[in-house]
Design brief:
7-stranded mixed beta sheet, Nucleoside Triphosphate Pyrophosphohydrolase
C-alpha cells in the first residue's frame, strides 16, 4: 500500500493553486460563491459533461434563482428544466433538500459539513465540494477525476474502491486541501499565519484537482508534458500512468430492445406518464413495451396499447444507453385504429404543442422531435 506524507502535500498544494489560477476554465458557477448555485452545478455535473451542463445550469438559475423558488416549484416544472440530463432522482432529491432547507434552516443553505451531508441526494463528495467551493472550508473531495489524479501522482496501484485504499485517498485529499487552507510555504504543526492564508485556497485546491483530471490527467492519452505536477508524479516516473487507477473490469453492456407506438387521432397523440418509483418516474412517454427474443410485433402492440391497429409504419430507430444497458428503441406509427379502441385507450391525448410542455426521457423526446419534423414538411 502506498503511503503519503504532509511534506509532499505541502509541495503540491501551491503548484496546483498557481496552475489553477492561470488555467481554470471560465465557468459561470465559478463566478459566484452562492452555495445554492454551486450545489445546482455539482448535482448537474454528476454523470454529465460540462459542455452539456452549461445551458441547463443557466436556464435553471434564470427560472429558479433561489432555494425558495426550487422548494415551491411544481414537479412538472423541475422535470421540464431537467429534461435531457437523465438520472431524474437527482432533481427530485434536490427539491426535497430545498424544502428541508426552507423548513429547518430558514431558506439559508447550511454551512456546516454535517448539515450539508444530511440533505437528500448529497454524499460525501458533493458536501465536500459545496463546503470548500462556497465556504472555503478544508473539506476533501474524491470523485473519478480526483481518484485518477491522486492514484497517479502518489503511485497508488491498489483498487481505489477497496475500503483501505479508498480511505487512503480521502486522507490524501484532506492533506492537500488542509495545506491549501494553511497558506503558502507553512510547516505542518506550526500555527498558521493569517496574512499568508489564501482566502480561496480550499476552493481553488479542490477545483484544481477536478480541473487537472478533466483537462490534463485524462483517462486515455494524458498530457503529461503539460502537467504542472509531473515532476512529483510517481506513475510518470514508473511509466505506468495509463495503467492507473486500477479499476475493476467493466461488465459488458447488455442489449435490450423496445418498441414504441405513436397513435394519432384528430390531431392528438396518445402518451402516458411513468409511475412513481419506476425508472424515469413521472416523465411522459409513448406507449411502449420491451421485446424479448420470441415476442412477435403483433403481440407487443397488443400489450402496449390493449388493441391492435390495422397497420404499423416504421417511424424511426433510436439507440441509447442507460446504466449498463444498450437499448434499441423502434418507433412505429400505428394506423387504422377503430373508434371503440380509441375510446378505451389508457393515457392522455395531446397535440404536438401540448406534448412540448411535458418532460420526456431522451429517447421518447427524439420520437417527438421526429413527429415535429414530419409535421413541418
Amino acid at each position: 500500500m502506498a503511503t503519503v506524507n504532509n511534506s509532499k502535500a505541502g509541495m503540491l498544494a501551491p503548484v496546483l493553486l498557481g496552475w489553477f489560477t492561470d488555467n481554470a476554465r471560465d465557468l459561470p458557477w465559478r463566478r459566484t460563491r452562492d452555495p445554492y448555485a454551486i450545489w445546482v452545478s455539482e448535482i448537474m455535473l454528476q454523470q454529465t459533461q460540462v459542455k452539456m451542463v452549461l445551458p441547463y445550469w443557466k436556464r435553471w438559475m434564470r427560472e429558479l434563482p433561489t432555494i425558495e423558488s426550487l422548494a415551491g416549484a411544481s414537479a412538472a416544472e423541475i422535470h421540464k428544466l431537467w429534461e435531457g440530463l437523465g438520472y431524474y432522482n437527482r432533481v427530485r432529491h434536490m427539491q426535497k433538500a430545498a424544502q428541508i432547507i426552507v423548513e429547518r434552516h430558514g431558506g439559508k443553505f447550511p454551512a456546516a459539513f454535517d448539515e450539508v451531508l444530511a440533505l437528500p441526494g448529497i454524499g460525501r463528495y458533493t458536501a465536500g465540494a459545496i463546503c470548500s467551493i462556497a465556504f472555503n472550508q478544508p473539506t476533501p473531495i474524491l470523485d473519478g477525476n480526483v481518484i485518477r489524479v491522486l492514484t497517479r501522482i502518489f503511485g497508488i496501484a491498489e483498487n481505489p474502491h477497496e475500503k483501505e485504499t479508498n480511505a487512503l485517498l480521502w486522507s490524501v485529499a484532506e492533506d492537500l486541501v488542509t495545506c491549501a487552507r494553511r497558506g503558502w510555504g507553512e510547516t505542518p504543526g506550526e500555527p498558521a499565519r493569517e496574512d499568508a492564508r489564501p482566502t480561496n485556497g480550499c476552493s481553488h485546491l479542490n477545483q484544481s484537482l477536478m480541473e487537472l483530471g478533466a483537462l490534463i490527467c485524462t483517462p486515455r492519452q494524458p498530457q503529461c508534458a503539460a502537467c504542472p505536477v509531473a515532476r512529483h508524479c510517481v506513475a510518470l516516473r514508473q511509466h505506468c500512468v495509463e495503467q492507473l487507477p486500477k479499476l475493476d473490469r467493466r461488465i459488458a453492456p447488455s442489449p435490450r430492445r423496445f418498441v414504441a407506438f405513436v397513435v394519432k387521432h384528430q390531431g392528438r397523440f396518445l402518451v402516458r406518464q411513468r409511475p412513481a418509483g419506476a425508472l424515469n418516474a413521472h416523465l411522459w412517454e409513448f406507449p411502449n413495451v420491451e421485446l424479448f427474443e420470441k415476442t412477435a410485433l403483433v403481440e407487443a402492440v397488443r400489450r402496449a396499447l390493449g388493441f391492435a391497429p390495422r397497420s404499423l409504419k416504421p417511424l424511426c430507430v433510436i439507440k441509447h444507453s442507460i446504466t449498463r444497458y444498450r437499448i434499441t428503441l423502434e418507433a412505429f406509427a400505428a394506423n387504422g385504429i377503430r373508434k371503440a379502441s380509441l375510446a378505451r385507450a389508457d393515457g392522455r391525448w395531446l397535440t404536438l404543442g401540448g406534448l412540448e410542455t411535458l418532460s420526456f426521457p431522451s429517447a421518447h423526446r427524439r420520437i417527438l422531435l421526429r413527429l415535429r419534423d414530419n409535421s413541418a414538411h
